[in-house]
Amino acid sequence: MVGVGLGLQQTFNDVISGIILLSERSIRVSDVLEIDGDIVKIQEIGLRTSKGLNTDDISIIIPNSLITTNKVINWSHQTHLNRFRVNIGVSYESDVEFVIKILEESAKEHPEVDSQKNIEARLVSFGDSSLNFQVLFYSSTIFGSDRMKSDIRRVIRRKFIENDISIPFPQMDIHMKPSK
Asked: Are 63 and 51 contacting, i.e. CB atoms less than 8 angstroms apart?
């Protein structure tokens, strides 16, 4: 009986969460959610589970308690535009101002990036092997944001190659002391 009770506890949590979702209507069909780092478009909200489609067009069954008890970002509740970022590291020999210019130009080239909003590149940290930058931009694309960011990364890489800016790989120097 204890085992059955423990097994039904999660099912009961999911059903109560389903009632909350259906009555509050804070999440609706066709909303785009970020749950545990995954982007999912909700297709159906049921009493115990919800069904969604991820960016790989794979149907996912989501227990309703996962939606109500975890941190969930509902991208559909945002304004029309959302801010995205692409991170990149470059060699310490690189001209910082020139890298910022290339990053901003690269984002501007993408047709889904809103050119009316500020596109900004920043030097964010001094890494072990690289100067670390990020470029921030706005777009109305949510569900295809991974593809859009990949496109921008490809443009950045092409421009870095054209301008002899290197992306370093992590490396570690080992110094051996001679034995006496």
From this structure: no
Q: Which helix (H) or strand (E) holds 24?
A: helix 2-24
Burial environment of residue 168 by CB neighbours within 10 A (0 to 12, 13 to 18, 19 or more): middle
Alpha-carbon torsion 17, 23, 27, 29, what sign?
A: positive
Question: Contact at 8 Å (CB) between 59 and 49?
Answer: no
12 pLDDT above the threshold of 70:
yes
Mean pLDDT of 89-103: 96
pLDDT at 73 over 70: yes
Q: What is the pLDDT of residue 86?
A: 96
Cβ(69)–Cβ(17) under 8 Å? yes
* pLDDT average, residue stretch 141-169: 91
List the helix and strand counts (H, then E) for the chain.
4, 8
Question: With b meaning 16 or more CB within 10 Å and e meaning fewer, what string describes 87-112?
Answer: ebbbeeebeeeebbebbbebbeebeb
